[in-house]
Design a protein that fits this description.
Helix content: 40-55%
Strand content: 5-15%
Number of strands: 6
CATH class: Alpha Beta
Oligomer: single chain
Strand order of the largest sheet: 1-6-5-4-2-3
Shape: globular
Order of helices and strands: HHHEHEHHEHHEHEHEH
Length: 211
């Protein structure tokens, strides 16, 4: 007789998953806040490489929490990343979520200027008032453009989550962000993605809203 499927509630799945991750986590010199971010990335990807490939600038997590508590704007480079961010948690912190990539006027301007929508989106984001956290999980062009804007004094991000995935300009764009004075979390190497960008945002917010 075929074994009956065990139906598990979503919250129970997450609890069990986190228990498994905790058991299999390698040794690391993370702060508690950094460890929670690493675990959430592993949970989102089932990839333990994030235990060794996540870079945190000095005091990055604590700085991110301070920024989130102030009611920051959170900018993503894909609607997929935006969809994965916990809107309730962000709302409790007084934050707002933005993604300009699918805006028709962004596409039109990018075509007219011969640049990418990601570049135009970064320009739009730089005009937002108040502290802005950039969560980039897909477009290395967004990071490259943001880096150039920072160097030119045209952008002043409060925090950068740099985790685009892929092969072309991905590693280079992340390394440039690490060279700035902006506090950041970076997925070194080729790995990353919109789900990782969202996971890091959620991991940071949960450290405030779930305590």
């Amino acid at each position: 007789m075929q074994k009956q499927t065990e139906w598990i509630r979503p919250e129970e799945i997450e609890r069990r998953s986190m228990e498994i991750i905790e058991k299999e986590m390698p040794e690391g010199k993370w702060t508690l806040g950094e460890r929670l971010v690493v675990k959430r990335c592993i949970h989102a990807s089932a990839d333990f490489d994030y235990a060794s490939h996540l870079y945190f600038s000095p005091g990055a997590v604590q700085r991110a929490l301070e920024i989130l508590k102030s009611g920051a704007s959170l900018v993503t480079d894909t609607n997929m990343a935006a969809a994965g961010i916990n809107k309730r948690a962000l709302g409790r912190l007084g934050g707002t979520l933005h993604c300009f990539m699918a805006d028709e006027d962004v596409a039109r301007e990018a075509k007219e200027r011969g640049i990418t929508r990601a570049a135009v989106s970064m320009e739009r984001a730089a005009k937002l008032t108040g502290p802005v956290i950039f969560a980039i999980g897909n477009a290395p062009t967004a990071l490259m453009w943001l880096y150039d804007m920072i160097q030119a004094g045209q952008a002043n991000p409060a925090f950068i989550i740099a985790v685009p995935v892929g092969f072309v300009n991905v590693v280079e764009s992340k390394e440039r962000i690490k060279q700035t004075d902006v506090p950041c979390i970076v997925a070194e190497g080729r790995k990353g993605g919109s789900n990782i960008a969202a996971a890091i945002c959620n991991a940071l917010m949960y450290q405030i809203t779930e305590n």
